[in-house]
Amino acid sequence: MAIIQLGRLSEIKQARYVIHLSDKKRLVLFRLPVMDPSKQPEGVHRAANETDDGWIYYAMEAECPHAGGPMQDSLVEIEDSAYVVSCPWHAYDFNVETGESSVGIKACTFPVNVRGEYVTLVYNSAEGCDVSLVQLEPVSEKFKKKKDSRGSTPRQEVSPAHQAESGPVKYLDENATVCDWCAHILNTSNPEHKIELTAHLFSIFLEKEASSSPMPLGRGTVSPPAQPPREGLSEVKPWAIPKAGKGGTLKSRISMLHALANIELWAIDLAIDICIRFATFQTDPASQGFSQELPRAFFHDWLKVANDEAKHFSLLRARMEEMGSYFGALPVHHGLWESATITAHDLRARISIIALVHEARGLDVNPMTIGKFRKAGDAESVECLEVIHNDEITHVTTGHRWLTWICQEEGTDPVQVFRSNVRKYFRGNIKEPFNAEARTQAGLDGRYYENLEGVPLGA
Description:
Number of helices: 11
Low-confidence stretches: 148-165
GO molecular function, one term: 2 iron, 2 sulfur cluster binding
Largest sheet: 5 strands, antiparallel
Organism: Aspergillus coremiiformis
Keywords: 2Fe-2S, Iron, Iron-sulfur, Metal-binding
Number of domains: 2
Mean pLDDT: 87
Protein name: Rieske domain-containing protein
């Protein structure tokens, strides 16, 4: 048995870390708020993994024992006064303290102790070999802030899009509902304000979700805009966007990053919009005779997607600035929002087209895009794009999870529901090449997308 020092309490402040050990094993460290002390039995003293200021630490294996999903990206919920984490790939749930699951399999968990000012891990190594900490890697939730103009290089300019809403970002008061916040974010045109507000909403939603006063949803109390505003950007039709080239030149790579940043900015709005536009959605079961409203986990999952998309936009925007450009330097299109408009009437169609067609298509092309930047020796951009690709696997998983949930409640087949919606609302065919490995990780096997045609382009 090894006692491994992970770091000082004063240094371990993020919610999650990946623990890299010298025996090549990877664990996840969770830092979670102590549950309401009033719910604890009388006479129970502070646990060994609990701090004086209200935090508690847990460690478990980093790969889901079902299919190897990344547990550092898991959803954290409270069930029966215990923290439970759900794998982002297939939603297998595990108690973070015991590793027990409702589906009969068990994850490995490891004792964590708070000893003075240090956090330590109790680890049983194979064959008694010495094991040490190689790295405590924070799970990326950071956003890259826009540089002050005084720190800009001479080649950089100020984007008109960032001048659209001058002044400080506007926050809502503590009584605002989830839908109030969603409408506010959707109506915010300044990209910097939008990413800051999105990160703030996800943060306060998580904080209140773990408390005795969860954030009110505000279902049906406020309406989203027909289309989020964009100011200071030159908009053209999708087919009028200049070709980016193959990434061999700086200009070509900037063009590719600019196009991706535009997609990520719309992706923030799409994830926020699904929370407010479909907040009152109820299932329509064919046989059970009753309907279900969307559970709170639905709003958590899509706010998490929005938070990721905001992080992605910040990474791409910052990288373009490092390369001497800025977001808004090139024309953009709003083709993604057109897909949102034609699916605004039906949550099943929205998930099918946005999450399981557009996002899944990103899984297909991302490796090729990353390869172009790697070939050009652009390691900084490769790092950003790999973060985005890994996150987007979980986004497709989120879409698959909620379409499957709806279909289970309604007694329908998610594959057939998906294919039917593609035939109605997606223009063109679902074309190869497919990243079958990434799609499978996200829950999409070949039944979903093989030999599938949408609406003919000339129709």
